[in-house]
Write a structure and sequence with these properties.
584 residues; Aspartate Aminotransferase, domain 2; homodimer; alpha+beta; 21 strands; 17 helices; seven-stranded mixed sheet; six-stranded antiparallel sheet
Chain lengths: 584, 584
């Protein structure tokens, strides 16, 4: 019943779909497990279930009268509780906000006039209408369709239609319990044991841990500061030698296009178009995992115009989101792969974990009808449906309270908060290290890498003080690309700045290089700074990362530390790095 | 961190565990997929994470300050809101209760003195203590351990320890998102494609749909009104011919011991012990799926002592739960397979779906440490953790509000409600049909089957009126065993009472017999009574059910219809049955 209403409903958002092509046949991509899944044998039953006057003794539904929850309520932020510009106003003023969180603090006067930044949502047990969109506990605490509550489906369809604008007509959405489960479903739907999966050369370990035990092989594609390098993807596929590799050419690409984990890189429209076309050519399914999509912000901008570096970085076009409309915000988001997907070969995975909270365990697929149908069957045979308690609260908040426009406003606040935190980290690097552009970096020449050096002594022409040698040339310590999205700064450590590096590399090879990095990681941890070693994210450990063999990598998260903690951590890192690279 | 606390905590409930053996090695049962799952590579990270003063830039946790839920509250029933005896008192009296639901209705006076049957629970955002058991939104809306919240784990461990009393020492519990997902995890943990699974010959289609696509073969074991028949299990395993069957002897038994779906049968201690020993002999893992466990009640008792049948059925020992203590309630529950499990070969799956609500999507495993560890790895790579919003509400209700004793009291109310509903259905059969014991039934001779006939004419020696023939002998229509648990009555339709049955069986074989049943099912549906055809539940369609070939089966649910609906349905069924068996 739910699904019938839902399908009728979605057409509201597809006014222009008449001119779009339908997805092409992708059934050859289904695994044997996915093919084996049976549709429900209960069709006759459903046909009769809708009859007026029918007495149903067929199901096994518990009696909703004795569910112990009679009413849920929640105090929630209003859609505009988060500011969209970092704190400038003083406490008590109408624009006051918390400097750490960007949460607006209503003045006493505005509070008095009812302008609070919170409101209360309430979900009652009895239905308030017979509409399938009605959000009530009788429905949401009961067993339900694996597709999710119709109100949440409708909300998500409107969002997908307006924000992603898929290029094929017959797309649909399907709720899931978060992107790890979503990816697990995709793995079992598309892959046979022994198949290969294409990953960014540094990729999310959670995704790889889900697919690898099947078992599947990891095939890494080179990345730079703008994500996957199309030439490398094409080369790997073009030159695929099944005999040499021991498995057929991969058919599935797993990618995090925006604020990639761990590199922080974001793929923009042009690159996506090229990659999409390569995937058409080699019949690859693109699995687009986008937890950080709404966290895409304008580039970091130096606040210190007195240095040559700062003056140049300040030139970066820097838009003020506060002056923008919701439409401008949306227009600046990089297009989803769905926007180029005229064949239905993209499976997009979204999650509310970063925009609402991870504890919602709610996300959704957007893809063609063959895939949503098979994923629905897989959902029925596993999670059944996301938690109704979570759906009740999130549906009430999004579909009934904030609605589409309110959610867009909320996303702008979320985006602004993480942009502020990204700025904290980059600003701290600038104030603690000596930064310079590094055009010569072998990492990826056309990306604006920033290299952090030891601090030079003013007026001494790039020299630094050395305990043993007196003055010496400053050393490159780490390089990074200030990210435009996500939660991470990916640090490339200049291991070659270490005086013993050449010797270790020659004598001990990659193992020795890794040992050096581990030593540096341990020094940091012993100094109370905990970061993630890059090898956690290595899609093909043991296979050299061409062009970056002389670097070690660390991932730094700017998502949750306070400014004070971050400052302390970056100062400590500076000291530990300088000491590590000192000749002893 | 969570897990460390949890492990320390669980020992509180294992005072006598010193005298129990640990589980034996079951690692040979793991599938290659389960073996391939990696433990987290982040051990070094965890070691440092607990250090005081550590600044963590390692994780990718979103900032909890900007989660939009600031406080949750819920109006919930008190632990004793449900009566434990069916309604007798009048409205307004101190003992008044809703006749349909057994929900107590406080009189105005008791309400005035604060004796309400509801209370409000509230979960705040900031932690109220540093204890890992503290239930707060900062923790529960964030990413969390896949093991679930420590307070819920502790609650469940106490419940398992006191109610199930496993016979091995090193058991543990692991939260999951409900038993379908739980079973899916078990399937992928234990089974290779092509393996067989032992099922009750009539089994839950959801479970079979989860395991079959792997693919796995279904091997059915005969059941009677008390569940699995040990002799048949032994025979199947003893006579296993791998060459003839085409796959190795099954190693996994899926069973619903209490209020089995669809047959309503309950396995008691003696039979479980025998089956456990057979499983030891053939090294079978017992997967005990127990959604209806707490719904185990005293046997149905006839209220009509004026008939021979009623007088005999009234003899059934009938305990009054209202006079019992919680301890008596627990003592009368059939022992879990865990109680006999001195080797750790039982994986028990529990769910809150029937005792709290399906929308909680919360359940748990109880099993040995090898299995909980591998299931935890599988959880990390799929659902990650049950919804924190659901955990917050259920943990607050169970672990902080009702607590162990309160939950036991609540379960007694749930049990009483479903027992009342079971009584409604059996009473209605008694008042609408003519019931007799049927000792001669080939279905299973030692079980008290009840056969429902056409109503006889008083004083006419078992004769009924027939439109064409005038008086004739009454016909057996359906047989059933009044269930002691669950939500279902399993009806065996006496197809052989149909005058064309012998001919159809001879000429058309099983297909013709199925067609007859489908015709009867359609007649019922067309008369607005929707029930489940037995073939939905057939573990091995096409393989004859020895001894019951002349019967067709229907499953009737008594879990959610009102008494009025049920009465109307059973009266309609009577008419449709009588008409169906009439010679036309």
């Amino acid at each position: 019943m739910d699904s019938a209403f839902a399908i009728a409903d979605q057409d509201r958002y597809r006014d222009d779909s008449a001119s779009l092509p339908n997805s092409i046949d992708m059934s050859h991509h289904l695994s044997s497990l996915a093919r084996n899944r049976q549709s429900s044998a209960l069709k006759d039953l459903y046909r009769y279930a809708a009859r007026p006057g029918m007495i149903a003794l067929a199901g096994g539904l518990p009696s909703p009268a004795i569910f112990p929850f009679l009413e849920l309520s929640a105090e929630v932020y209003t859609q505009d509780a988060l500011s969209i510009t970092p704190a400038t106003a003083q406490a008590g003023s109408p624009d006051a906000q918390d400097a750490q969180t960007m949460i607006k603090k209503p003045s006493f006067l505005s509070w008095l006039f009812g302008k609070k930044n919170t409101e209360t949502i309430t979900i009652s047990k009895p239905p308030s209408s017979s509409s399938p969109l009605d959000i009530n506990l009788n429905t949401l605490l009961q067993y339900s369709s694996a597709q999710g509550h119709p109100a949440l489906q409708a909300f998500i369809r409107e969002f997908v239609s307006k924000v992603y604008q898929p290029a094929f007509a017959d797309w649909d959405v399907l709720l899931n319990v978060g992107s790890t489960m979503a990816w697990s479903h995709v793995v079992f739907m598309l892959l046979e044991p022994g198949d290969g999966v294409l990953y960014e050369e540094w990729s999310y370990p959670g995704a790889m841990n889900t697919a690898s035990p099947l078992p599947t092989h990891k095939v890494s594609i080179k990345v730079d500061g703008e994500g996957l390098i199309p030439e490398d993807l094409n080369k790997v596929l073009e030159e695929w030698d099944e005999e040499k590799r021991g498995f057929r050419r991969p058919r599935v690409l797993y990618t995090v296009p925006t604020g990639q984990n761990p590199t922080g890189a974001t793929m923009l429209a042009e690159r996506k178009k090229i990659i999409y076309n390569i995937c058409v050519k080699y019949d690859i399914i693109i699995v687009e995992d986008e937890p950080y999509y709404a966290l895409y912000a304008d580039p970091w901008k130096s606040r210190n115009h007195s240095t040559r570096f700062g003056a140049r970085y300040a030139d970066v076009e820097h838009y003020k989101d506060s002056k923008d409309t919701d439409e401008e915000f949306l227009k600046k988001l990089p297009p989803s792969y769905l926007k180029f997907d005229y064949q239905g070969r993209v499976i997009r995975m979204d999650t509310f974990s970063k925009t609402i909270c991870p504890g919602s365990r709610l996300g959704w697929f957007t893809c063609g009808p063959l895939f949503t149908e098979r994923l629905l069957r897989a959902t029925e045979a596993s999670t059944q449906a996301p938690s109704g308690l979570a759906q009740a609260l999130v549906a009430k908040l999004l579909a009934d309270t904030w609605k589409y426009d309110g959610y867009i406003r909320w996303l702008r606040g979320i985006k602004a908060t993480y942009a502020m935190r990204r700025d904290w980290m980059c600003d701290l690097f600038e104030s603690v290290f000596h930064l310079e552009f590094d055009q010569t970096l072998t990492l990826s020449p056309h990306i604006k890498w920033v290299t952090a050096y030891e601090r030079t002594i003013s007026g001494m022409g790039g020299l630094v003080m050395d305990e043993k040698k007196g003055y010496k040339s400053k050393k490159a310590l780490v390089s990074f690309v200030p990210p435009t999205a996500g939660m991470f700064v990916w640090l490339a450590v200049h291991l070659s700045s270490h005086h013993k590096f050449a010797q270790i590399k020659r004598e001990e090879g990659p193992d020795g290089v890794n040992k050096m990095l581990y030593e540096l990681w341990t020094d940091l941890a012993e100094s109370n700074v905990l970061i993630s070693p890059g090898y956690f994210f290595d899609a093909q450990p043991g296979v050299p990362h061409e062009g970056t063999e002389d670097f070690g990598f660390f991932r730094l998260s700017f998502s949750s530390a306070t400014h004070e903690e971050m400052e302390s951590a970056i100062k400590t890192m500076y000291k530990v790095f300088v000491k590590f690279f000192q000749e002893k």
